[in-house]
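User: Quick one: structure for sequence A, then sequence B.

Assistant: Sequence A:
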Amino acid sequence: MQALYDLPAPAKLNLFLHITGRRADGYHLIESVFMLIDWCDTLHFECRADGAISRQDLGAPLPAADLSIRAAHALRSATGCKQGAHIGLLKRLPAQAGIGGGSSDAATTLLALNRLWGLGLSRSALEKIGVTLGADVPFFVRGRNARVAGIGEIITPLAHGQLPPACFAVVKPAAGLETKAIFSSPLLKRASGGATISGFAAADFGRDGDCYQDADFCRNDLQPVAQALCPEVTQAIEWLRARGLQGRMTGSGSAVFAPIPQAPDLGHVGDLGAAPEGWQVRVCGNLMLHPLAGWAADED
């Protein structure tokens, strides 16, 4: 095997994000549900005989040491592999959006090079490498919608059917938002009350799509801070509200999303009307599994 082409790196939405505390080392404890959606970057991988790691940007230029490059080096470092790779990356997912684009690129890179280089690492082994790159990377390696806790390293896959098929409007305003700026803000409440992940587990969230609509439970504790730091987050929520949609923030970036009723007039981006210049608006469906979910064995 010398090359792998057209491999997806899907985004994710946080159906809710609760901050439950803070560790002594400063890391925040969260409870959330991560859900894969069909908005994806695309990556291509080719073996290099000289052992070098390189990348070609097929869209907008990326930083020299983006997460795909870092993931390739981390995999070689962990295994002692001497093989090289050339990565082609078509970047569609916006940065600083909170939808996991860079982490997903890293996960797809780990899964692809594990296969291309014939390493035979298990999924759990790849997750251990992934967590050194970012807290969200193991989720994408695992490849299943999941409850996430701790600092993001405790991943419990959801039962099949617990998240029913649905469509969402995802809006990324022109302004981005850095995760560090939110978590370092003195405005952030670091001990969320109310519903927790145990409530999610006990609820019949597969019934009538309630998991997408419960405004109290499906809140993002980072949203008030994000709105204070980035007024465009509020503008995006109001833009969705003007279209009869209940928007909320996903993750720790500036993107917001809203469930779309299953109606023919709300199934395409054009049906939502014109967005402000520089905004990205996408109608997405959720995924039951990562497209590369079967690319690594579950056990060593």
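Sequence B:
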Amino acid sequence: MSETPYPLHTALSLAASGVPVLPLRRGKVPFGNCSACVDNTCGRRPNMKTPGPCRCPGVCHAWAAATTEPAVIVSPAWAAAWRRAVCVGYHPGGAGLTVVDLDDSDAIAWARAALPATRTVPTTRGQHWIYRGAMASRNAVRPGVDIKSTMSYARYLGPGTGTMADLPDAVRALAVKGPSPVRPATVAVPAGAGGGECPHRTRAYLERGIAMAEQRITEASSAVHATVYRTFLAVLSTHGRCGCLTDTHVARLFTAAQSKGETARHCTDAWTNARTTLGL
């Protein structure tokens, strides 16, 4: 299976081998949900962060849109997406695979010393190491290293070289012992803020605000970076000095941003820049 100038051809070839695929637009990010599926509402139960069963014919829900069905891949509903696609994404966990995404030379050097050799695919700045076996995905398990498997997608960059090895315990341990993919900056609680209680907003107001911020991010169909930053700025301008924001609230915002293709590093940078702008 070699990459061709036509993403659809590559997608059909991958699907025929049992790898669920989806189109990726400029920026290597999935297409946004359609209006009927905004905020992953279709099939979603209360308090769920991931989409439930969806009968939408469109290219929705990022990694959850990935499919091996040729009829879906070439359907009219997907046609517009393929015309705009710049590359093919795939759902590693759906194919029983795990991708260790090594972002730079230091990460590659670490992998060579710490992990068993396996199939390797060159990327723009580093390498993808692909193992046989699925696990939970997690970003930033160590500097320059992400794990992409279930509930995640990776860019297809070719078949790679080397023999694919079984997923080792050393990789599984990274998701357990590694740092959280969400690394929110600490919001200082000013003196007199009521011990962390928001002095001028009710908890219901805060929850509605966070939910609206999540929706604003997940509905973004373009300028995702700018939308994430502006949303973080809006949340912090209202609640950043109150002490009412918790790590859980910030994690929800980071998760929404990562569902649109943002990395943990981009989320952290946007959050830090927003705090700096507001003098927090």
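The longest strand covers residues 97-102. The CA atoms of residues 33 and 60 lie 5 Å apart.

User: Thanks, that's what I needed.
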